[in-house]
Write a structure and sequence with these properties.
The chain has two helices and no strands. It has 96 residues and is an all-alpha fold. 35% of the residues are buried.
């Protein structure tokens, strides 16, 4: 189950999220199973986050950094992925 505080912060936009990430470099965001359908996550620093089982359908992920993130079983169908980075990301059974 996702950490509700992490979900609320992410929903406030990439500026708030990225500032929080810089201030909390030791925290691994827990977004397991988060319902982020059609969310605007453009340019978000999501490196190392746990998105396993998350619903990211139709989300705007342009320019987002998912390096080292766990997207196992995440649903990314119809998501906008232009210039998103997935280096070392785990995509096992993800729906693309």
């Amino acid at each position: 189950m996702a950490n509700e505080e992490h979900v609320r912060m992410l929903q406030q936009g990439h500026s708030v999220w990225n500032t929080w990430r810089r201030q909390n470099p030791g925290v691994r965001p827990d977004l397991r199973g988060a319902m982020l359908y059609s969310a605007d996550l453009t340019m978000a620093f999501l490196s190392g986050a746990d998105f396993s089982d998350a619903d990211l359908r139709a989300a705007d992920l342009r320019g987002a950094d998912f390096s080292g993130a766990d997207l196992s079983r995440a649903d990314l169908r119809r998501a906008y992925l232009s210039e998103a980075r997935f280096e070392r990301a785990r995509l096992r059974e993800a729906k693309l």
